[in-house]
Specification:
Length: 186
């Protein structure tokens, strides 16, 4: 439901928040919606890109598994590397937007990525598990649950004011770094 609201806000209600800042001085003006042909072309190209990224992850996963085993890292690192690979295009776009001083666009890309990953993947996996009668295990240890709760709390503080700053971004990066360190050294 959260992902659906985000998509509605992004594509209908406040579409101009998600566009480059040209004409950003006039908050009452909304960008015109794309034509049907452009929308369908974007949808098709998004599907192609998604298949390509997931296919790449699938092809590279045996090599990643061998590399993680050779390094003696925990099995959880495999999931982190695959997730980073799948999220690389959105991450790259968010970094490019931030470097171009389009911080709102960068934040929107990050939020959209997180909502799609969490808001769609976990319910889809849960639905498949229920339909196939398989047990569902999210695999979150106690330390991971604490980091998840901390991330939600910091995210609520960061986004609650409607504006962000460098310090809040740094706090998120430190939490992420702690997650990575704890994944490598359990």
């Amino acid at each position: 439901m959260l992902w659906g609201v985000f998509v509605f806000v992004q594509t209908v209600r406040h579409r101009d928040y998600f566009l480059p800042p040209a004409g950003a001085d006039d908050e009452s003006a909304h960008a015109p919606p794309p034509s049907d042909a452009a929308a369908w072309a974007s949808f098709g190209l998004m599907g192609v890109a998604l298949v390509a990224v997931i296919g790449l992850a699938k092809v590279l996963s045996p090599a990643i598994e061998r590399g993680i085993a050779a390094a003696g890292a925990p099995q959880a690192v495999i999931g982190i590397v695959i997730a980073l690979l799948v999220l690389l295009p959105e991450t790259w776009a968010a970094v490019r937007a931030a470097r171009a001083d389009r911080l709102q666009t960068s934040l929107n890309l990050a939020l959209g990525s997180a909502l799609a990953s969490i808001g769609l993947t976990i319910p889809a996996v849960a639905l498949v598990a229920v339909l196939l009668g398989m047990p569902l295990q999210l695999g979150l240890a106690a330390k991971d649950l604490v980091l998840l709760a901390l991330t939600f709390a910091v995210g609520a503080i960061t986004l609650g004011t409607g504006r962000t700053n460098v310090l809040q971004g740094a706090v998120h990066l430190v939490i992420f770094a702690a997650f990575l360190v704890l994944a490598l050294v359990p």
